[in-house]
Amino acid sequence: MLRSLALSSSRSLGRLLARHTSCTQRPQPSQVARLRLDFTASQASLSSSSSASPRSSCSDLFEHASPAASSSSWPFSSISGVVAQQWRSASSFASTDPSRLLCWRPSARFLSSCSSLSTRTRFECGPSVRQILSTASPGESVTLKGWLRTVRISKSTAFLSLTDGSLQGGIQIVCEPSLAKGLSTGSFVEVHGLTVEAPAQHTDTVEVQADQVLLIGACDPDVYPLAKKRHSFEFLRELPHLRARTNTLGAVMRVRDSTAHVLQDYLRSHDFFQIHTPVLTATDAEGAGEVFQVGIEGEKASERERFFGEKAYLNVSGQLEAEIFASALGRVYTFGPTFRADPSDTRHHLAEFWMLEPEFIGADLPSLMNLSEDLIKLCAENMMKRCSGEFKLFSQFVDKTLGSRLTSIASDTPFRRITYHEAVDGLTHLHQGRPDLFKIVPQIGNDLAREHERYLCEEYFGFETPVFVTDYPRSVKPFYMRVNKDEKTVSCMDLLVPGIGEVAGGSVREERLSVLVENMKRCHVPQSKLQWYLDLRQFGSAPHGGFGIGFERLIQLLTGMENIRDVIPVPRHKNRVSVPKSLQ
Questions:
Q1: Distance (Å) of CA 16 to CA 30, 80, 242
Q2: CA-to-CA distance for 349 and 571, rounded, in angstroms?
Q3: 7 vs 403, which has greater pLDDT?
Q4: Which of 68, 211, 333, 394 could potentially form a cystine with 398 if both were Cys, beta carbons 3.0 to 4.6 Å apart?
Q5: Is the pLDDT of residue 46 over 70?
Q6: pLDDT at residue 31 is higher than 60
Q7: Beta bridge partners of 281
Q8: CA torsion 460→463→465→470, rounded to 10°?
Q9: Comparing C-alpha atoms, which of 163, 354, 356, 337 is closest to residue 268?
Q10: Which region holds residue 37: left if phi is over 0, alpha if psi is between -120 and 50, else beta?
């Protein structure tokens, strides 16, 4: 729980900032002096309270605001206390030139740290294995619940490896052989005991000396398919209801969770609002025609308009609806499932997959590329630092080049950027010298094939590097992309990454009504179903844009997993929509 200090200087700061909400005038010298005195006092008070706490950067506390950006009142005058660690950062920042602080507005993170929300903790489920291994000291009484991965029984001692899914690996339980009687791999147990110092050769600092082991859920070893050995991913795809118990697939799920949090935290820190866009739609955002039509069970195909009064489909993107709310809230994003009726049945295809789709006002092509690059680099860094156990597993057993690839992606080196015409010209030149290089000949006017994408980001520059390909021909892209001045290309980008190909794609949206109408006619998109989309261009149209990141492809990049069906909890694809029949 965050500890707050009730500082009188916070009230003075609140009153001072509240009088300068517009940031249109530089503060008077007397006000600057008062602010400096207030911060000096707060520094003196804080230096004795929590000097050992690491200093957070000032960017965590304040976000720069233009003079016209802060028209609403700041709620500082009502704040009675602030977090000591953050106050120290703010005071350090202001000690050089306190007047600078008046040209900044509080970030959501800063305000949330000053929140007076209740800290009640009625929820109690006991410590997880991760919490015990990271915080427990020898001699603590603990209760653990989880599944047994291994059971080894000798004459005098039994060794159990228990996991609850909270981290990579598990914790060792040491007990009397009599307590392990009837236990087997896969059983769910409850363990009571004391933490003791683990042997020096173990990587963990503690293990549990159990005095009681309760069998909660038995597991018949003669039937349980996940014996202690390595299983092929192909075999595990037939066990989607059990495969998350394995080391690799459990690690994938934790990486998904961590990556989703990182992406959304970054966007929220930049004032993006999450929008829950509909799953059911009457339009095909991409215009590709690969959509699932929705109907009522038992009705004829000719009657499928009966329920809604028109044909309905599962969405292929939340982009169009996101544009509605970007036109009102400025910066938004969607994160949810999307569907595509692609008949391909390969390791690259899913019928149901997740997309993260930011959409914001004022976007241009450089800002779209910068944001997507920031997100990918952040995810790579998060994988190596915060998912270290999972990262070690994937680097050792799945893809031995993963470490060097993610290190390169997370570095300060910018991603490469080339235009579509530069890419195709370069690939065509290479193909002329090596006719067997590509199965599909690259040609101007055609979209890039997967083999072209892989070559661009893996070999074209002489080393592996993510690549932005921009300004595709107008003829191969959807109607909503903004037409460039040459009237032949559109302001768009695809992000290609090693091992995967395209992981993200987006564009500046066409905000000019007349051009948008022309595009819809060219692409045979009926205006009657998208009149609301045209209205956005009639009533206060603003330049905007966005992109989509294929979440499963991103997880493939972070883990080195080759088959996209191994990085989603329950894969849905051609010829598979249900969990296989029971093993019984």
A1: 11, 15, 59
A2: 10
A3: 403
A4: 394
A5: no
A6: no
A7: 313
A8: -20
A9: 356
A10: alpha
Eight-state DSSP code of residue 428:
H
Rounded Cα distance between 354 and 336, Å, is 5
CB 13 within 8 A of CB 43: no
Give percent helix, percent strand, percent coil of the chain, each to the nearest 5: 35, 20, 40
Task: Extract the tokens encoding 507.
Answer: 């564009």
- The enclosing H or E element of 196 equals strand 188-197
- Read off the tokens for 177: 């052989």
Q: Which of 5, 17, 74 lies closest to 41 in space, CA to CA?
A: 5
- From the list 246, 355, 568, 559, the residue with the least C-alpha distance to 576 is 568
For residue 332, count other CB atoms closer than 10 A to its CB.
27
> Is the separation of the CB atoms in 405 and 398 below 8 Å?
no
**Residue closest to 232 by CA, chosen among 562, 504, 582:** 562
CB 276 within 8 A of CB 334: yes
Q: Coil, helix or strand for 130? A: helix
What average pLDDT does range 241-251 have in this prediction? Answer: 94
Tokens of 514: 């007349």
User: In the block, which residue shows the tokens 């992981």?
Assistant: 503
The SS3 assignment for 493 reads strand
Q: In degrees, to the nearest 5, what angle opens at C-alpha 217 toward C-alphas 213 and 219?
A: 105
What would the DSSP string read from start to end of 38-91?
A: HHHHHHHHHHTTSTTSPPPPGGGTEEE--TTS--SPPGGGG---EEHHHHHHHH
Could you report the per-residue pLDDT of 397-446, keeping only the tens digit for each? 999 999 999 999 999 999 999 999 999 999 999 999 999 999 999 999 99
What are the backbone angles phi and psi of residue 72, rounded to the nearest 5°? -85, 155
Closest CA to 477 of 448, 443, 512: 448
Per-residue pLDDT, 196: 95
86, 121, 134: which is closest to 106 by C-alpha? 86
538 and 352 in contact (C-beta within 8 Å)?
A: no
Other beta carbons less than 10 A from residue 471's beta carbon: 21
| 354: Cα separation from own chain's centroid | 10
CA 163 – CA 190 distance, rounded (Å): 11
What angle do the packed helices 29-47 and 84-96 form, to 10 degrees?
Answer: 140
Q: Is 359 left (phi over 0), alpha (psi -120 to 50) or beta?
A: beta
